[in-house]
Amino acid sequence: LGIVSCKTEAVGPFEEWEIIRKDDGFALRSVATNAFLSADKSSVRADSETVGFRETFQIRCQAEFLTKLRKKDVASKVDAAALDSQQLKKFQSYGRKELTSGDMRDLRKAEKQGNLNEALLDRRAKNPAAPATLSIAVIDVTFPRPGSGAVHSANLVMSVNTDNPTLRKGQYGRLARTSDDLERLFADLQALFPDRIIPIPPSRSMEPAAYQRAADTFLKRVMAHPVLSESSPVKFFIDKESSYLVNTGAEAFATHEKSAQSALRVLNNRLQKLADYDQACKSTQKKLLAIDKLRGSSSIRHDRVDSSLDDLKEAKRAEGILREDLRRQSDVVRSEYDGFEKQYVQDVRKDLDLYVAQQLQFDMQVLSALVRAL
Questions:
Q1: How far is CA 108 from the centre of its chain?
Q2: Looking at beta carbons, which pairs linking 1-6 to residues 24 or more positions away fall under 8 Å?
Q3: What is the value of pTM for the model shown?
Q4: CB 46 within 8 Å of CB 37
Q5: What is the pLDDT of residue 148?
Q6: Looking at CB atoms within 10 Å, which of 124, 130, 256, 338 has the fewest?
Q7: Separation CA 214–CA 23 (nearest Å)
Q8: Per-residue pLDDT tens for 128-154?
Q9: Do the beta carbons of residue 233 and residue 18 sit within 8 Å?
Q10: C-beta separation of 138 from 221 below 8 A
Q11: Of 86, 80, 78, which Cα lies nearest the Cα of 104?
């Protein structure tokens, strides 16, 4: 588990990655496993739970596309006034300052000198943007009926209003999320900001009314934080099209992981026996070389010859024992591995089918909650 490969022909959840922007680069998180891509000198894996140096990447564009973009920029005439107005509209929500004749003259001069972007940044620094607002309120919470077989995750209906230009919409109306979404948001913020104190999401054991108040407090505190509210996990939480059952089947897949680790221990045990046998062969070879050296000596001592012959005999005996043990272990692994692999694949597919069925049932519950709220 966690090994990255590039051999699948079709695109599924295991082939999808979410790009998370950081101050020093980008992090890639698997949509299927919710783990981060990590790389070192010898391997590339996707099982990291936190973002560090090995999970941070630089994403670059091929030179041919950059060349095309530069040619397109040169071909198009830049309107300094329109560009400044566009920048103000994008980064300021109110209090925009109109351009004076002096401002226009300075911008046109900067355009001729080739430093228009620097001049626009200076104007933005002199006219700081008003902070974007992001308000959210939990207006309804429902829990699955006892004995219905549904997952133990609350369904939340929220209202969201914002003037943040990086989000898809200003007014989202009714937004449906679940307890899994709140807990994933908390986990993502912890992984992305290990040096900050993240507000705690509500416990699922709470009563519905208390859970609604705690969820509303949690989201309001996150949205009011100047750094957390602008982070990619918050934007993903608000902009994503649907909710996912992140914790569904966790116990089943944890069992599969333990089963795979058990098989890995057997393979590692065989590798250790192979290493012991290899070491025994090298020891026997050294004993043979020692006897050859005695044969070529001008003065042969019988006690040394007898001792060397005894050592060689013991080395061959140990080598034979390890060879038979390795052969027996290899036969056992060979006979059991095929059956284990088939059964393992069947078990994983069965649990994946169950997860899909629960996801469909969950989507119907979310739809019903939205209909009741409307």
A1: 46
A2: 1/47, 1/257, 1/260, 2/33, 2/35, 2/45, 2/46, 2/47, 3/43, 3/45, 3/46, 4/37, 4/44, 4/45, 4/46
A3: 0.39
A4: yes
A5: 43
A6: 338
A7: 31
A8: 555 567 788 888 888 876 544 444 678
A9: no
A10: no
A11: 80
